[in-house]
Design goal:
It contains twelve helices and twelve strands. By secondary structure, the protein is an alpha/beta fold.
């Protein structure tokens, strides 16, 4: 199991393009294989990660994840191909459906038939990311177009945020895997991997990646830290898709899912996630007390 770093899931006063570039450079120097940026209400993750990759040499950068509804699939394909060229082929595009409260309430767009929307989106996006033309007409999207970005990777690696059975089937059939959040090891082993893996096998695709994000803090103040994480991540326990994954895992909320404790406790938790079949754990550190992020990052580096 690879051990990467995720950022952007929590508000960060330091967030800037220079900050992401410096983070990517530091992580690359430390030996981390990947950096992933959530696309929420700060920087555009595709652009920011392309810039970070441009200033590094080997680290994989990815979006975890970019919502699809605000961008037509052709527009996102063109952006991703351009970002891949900027990143010299080291960009992985992660996409997702976001949530009804964001798409309808905040953006005024439709959240009807989300899985059907994703399937139509993938039927246009995936051939374009392979450097092929996309001719498709459906209920939500239409296209008849080719793109020419010769210096992009062919294909641009693509993952989908998938938790329900239909979305996991789409991820396995069309993409390189899934990006998870608020999803525990038991759910990964018993639900995510079998559903997505069977779909990939039926489609003749390789075994998919399971890229799982977890909040993580190295600390001896376990109860206090979990309480702070519960406050920071409270909204994720209320969103229906994440709530369903927490319920599958038998957890009351995000604080229980977080990896919190001393080195031995974190070692056990990481091993459990690996044993579940996770291919990439992407750790989201949190400054629950002064110095928490720095010491947690040092610990994670020791695990590489």
């Amino acid at each position: 199991m690879k051990l990467g770093i995720m950022t952007g899931g929590l508000p960060d006063a330091n967030a800037s393009i220079d900050y992401y570039i410096a983070m990517a450079q530091d992580l690359e120097a430390r030996g981390f294989p990947s950096l992933w940026l959530a696309n929420i209400r700060s920087h555009d993750a595709v652009t920011a990660m392309a810039m970070a990759a441009r200033e590094t040499k080997k680290i994989e950068v990815g979006t975890a994840v970019t919502p699809i509804q605000p961008r037509h699939p052709v527009a996102l394909a063109q952006q991703a191909l351009t970002a891949s060229a900027m990143a010299r082929g080291r960009l992985t595009l992660g996409i997702g459906l976001s949530h009804k409260v964001v798409i309808e309430d905040a953006l005024g767009l439709s959240y009807a038939q989300p899985a059907n929307t994703m399937e139509e989106y993938l039927k246009i996006l995936t051939p374009l990311l392979r450097g092929e033309g996309a001719a498709f007409s459906g209920d939500h999207y239409r296209s008849k177009i080719e793109l020419n970005v010769p210096d992009a990777a062919k294909p641009v690696p693509l993952i989908v945020a998938a938790m329900g059975p239909r979305m996991l089937e789409l991820a396995g059939r069309y993409t390189d895997g899934t990006a998870l959040w608020m999803t525990g090891p038991r759910t990964i082993a018993q639900h995510v991997l079998p559903t997505m893996g069977n779909a990939a096998s039926a489609a003749g695709r390789p075994s998919p990646r399971v890229i799982a994000g977890f909040p993580i803090v190295l600390t001896n103040q376990v109860d206090e830290t979990r309480a702070k994480i519960g406050e920071m991540l409270q909204v994720y326990g209320q969103l229906p898709s994440y709530r369903a994954m927490l319920d599958r895992e038998g957890m009351a909320g995000p604080a229980e899912l977080a990896l919190v404790g001393d080195e031995a406790a974190l070692d056990r938790a990481i091993s459990q996630i690996a044993e579940a079949g996770t291919t990439d754990l992407i750790a989201h550190t949190a400054e629950t007390d002064p110095g928490a992020q720095a010491r947690t990052l040092d610990y994670l580096q020791s695990r590489l």
